[in-house]
Amino acid sequence: MVKYSTVKKKLKIEVDRATDNGLAHLTHYFQNNQNGVSQHYKEPASSYLTSLADELSLVEEPQMQLFLPMKFDVPFPPPTEYDFTFIDLFAGIGGFRIPMQENKGKCVFTSEYNFHAQRSYELNFGEVPFGDITKLNLDIVPPHDVLTAGFPCQPFSISGKMKGFEDTRGTLIYNVFQIIEMRQPKVVFLENVKHLIHHDGGKTLSIIIKDLENLGYIVSWKLLNASNFGVAQNRERIIIIGHKEKKFDFSKLKTKPKPVLKDILETEGNFEYLNEPYTIIEDHKVQESGLIFIGYRNKKIRVAGVRPGTENLSRVHKQPNRIYSTEGLHPALPSQESSGRFWIYHEGKVRKLTINECYRIMGFPDKFKKISNTAELYRQIGNSVCVPMIREITKQIKQQLL
Ligand SMILES: C[S@@+](CC[C@H](N)C(=O)[O-])C[C@H]1O[C@@H](n2cnc3c(N)ncnc32)[C@H](O)[C@@H]1O
Questions:
Q1: Looking at residues 292-320, what average pLDDT do you find?
Q2: Which residues have C-beta atoms less than 6 Å from ligand 1?
Q3: Which atom from ligand 1 is nearest to the alpha carbon of 335?
Q4: Claim to verify: residue 178 and residue 219 sit in the same structural domain
């Protein structure tokens, strides 16, 4: 068997050498060479390989068969036997893919257009995602059992008469609906931020549900908190699940007691300590969410526009000024900032989480390989999903719907 790492070296497979999804076709072909899906990628994969022959000054045209069967020496290789197939849209760094594969799901298509996320994905799964979903000819998406997507939330302009999903044209969920209409997966598994519930006065969510129903799905949704699935983070996300015949029953999900942050911390490392004055609140309380707001940075007290008697509190309005105790949970890791982490109070000192700790409180296994760009790593993990929560939902999807 040829190792993926050897083929990588030979072909100098690097994401920045991907042209027109050539590397995506090739790696998707490699990952599916033993199932019917391979036919889907064969032709473009083969032409890409031929184009590499010139580039790499190879005397003979490389044949794909030379590389097969392949051993994927990556942290999360495709399962050798599988019970169902799935596609990974807006794939990020593969927060869906890890638990889907653990549950014997075989990924047959993935799309993600961010270069750094594509690099992380390839490093961990041995497959390069296809790029911008809005620019793809969606015929390349093979039939599949489960469609997963943590899609970016965008406003829709409602034309008045709701005519199928045409109303969502120009948004990313429109492309998801197109794939659903074309391939009719058994299960649709969507994830989004809590804000989707209130977005545009609730219209965005109700349109998504209505469109899925019009596409023939029975839909159920629920706001779930990762802290109920063994993760030391207060992270609420909306999960939407559709199936052709059955309604997904969220009450069957098995929850766990909330863990605490101190249990997953690294004992040594290059910690980033707070080196400016701060205040610790003596009579702090555990909030209902499990967060313990224990102190704040001594920033300037605001007076203008602040109610008399609450001047001290004005410094804690800004999240980056707050300090949370490691005896409780960590607030949701933000996706927008590259390094604007929260402060944590642990064993008498105030510091930020390390990058490894961030990946842990998202439930990523320690074997997950990280690219060298730290700012990107923080951004990617804040954008991702909590793996243990997706794992439990996937188990239930398998039991109830597949
Ligand atoms: C909320 S994140 C999803 C993260 C993912 N669930 C994970 O586990 O890491 C949304 C992702 O969609 C990607 N994205 C946004 N627009 C896209 C497009 N037009 N085509 C492909 N990917 C896109 C972004 O780069 C981002 O990584």
A1: 69
A2: 90-96, 111-114, 117, 132-134, 150, 152, 172, 383-385
A3: 1
A4: yes
